[in-house]
Amino acid sequence: MKSIIRSLILLCVFAATFVSCETYSDPKVDYSSIYPLSGEWRVRIRNTNADTLVNKTTMYTFGTYNTSDNSTTQMWLRTTSSIPSFINAIYNVGAKSTWPPTTLKSKIQCDVTGLSFTTTGIIQNLNVTTNAVIDTITITEGKVTLNSVSMPSGVMSDRISFKLKKSKSPGVTYLVDGYRRTRWNEDETFITFK
């Protein structure tokens, strides 16, 4: 009787081993219609006229995402953090700005195959919460370069860069440059990337 029980236990262990070794294929990932242009980005902003960073210690968060009709030629560009220094240089009163922080939300043209994006002329910039028109913007030289930033966490990340002109900052060109957000803590404030 004991040998039958031992045999059954041994048989169950072997059966469990073979069942647990079954392999499954990787799940299918559904990407956005504009991937790899879509994503969440950590960026630094440089005033190219003064050749200085808008803020030497702060990274801002941008999102690029598909339109509601899943267009492959248009995408939304949106800040998910306020950028107070965009207008401070012009509207300063003493040490305090008289204007609220600025956000960006604009539908722009994109080329998924060429990994590039731009505005067609001057377009409206909307408030991210109210959709009211804040000002107008022009974006040029927008591009994404895959696996081109070596992050402190040890992973490679994609890079995004574009030039931005805003009607509330006449004559100023901003260079927005950054990397795809990894969510690793050590990567969140990595401002000195090359």
| Name of the CATH architecture | Beta Barrel
Number of domains: 1
Query: How far is it from the N-terminal to the C-terminal residue, by CA?
Result: 73 Å
Question: Count the strands?
Answer: 12
Give the number of helices: 2
N-to-C order of helices and strands: HEEEEHEEEEEEEE
The strand line-up of the biggest sheet is: 1-3-4-7-8-10-11-12
How would you characterize this protein structure?
The model is unreliable at 88-99 (pLDDT under 50). It is elongated and about 90 Å long. Helices cover 13% and strands 41% of the residues. It starts with a helix and ends in a 14-residue tail after the last strand. The strands form two sheets. Strands 1-3-4-7-8-10-11-12 form an eight-stranded antiparallel barrel. A two-stranded antiparallel sheet has the order 5-6. The protein has helices at residues 2-20, 85-91, and strands spanning 39-47, 52-53, 60-66, 74-79, 92-93, 96-97, 105-111, 116-118, 123-126, 133-150, 156-166, 173-180. The chain has a single domain, classed as Beta Barrel (Lipocalin). By secondary structure, it is mainly β.
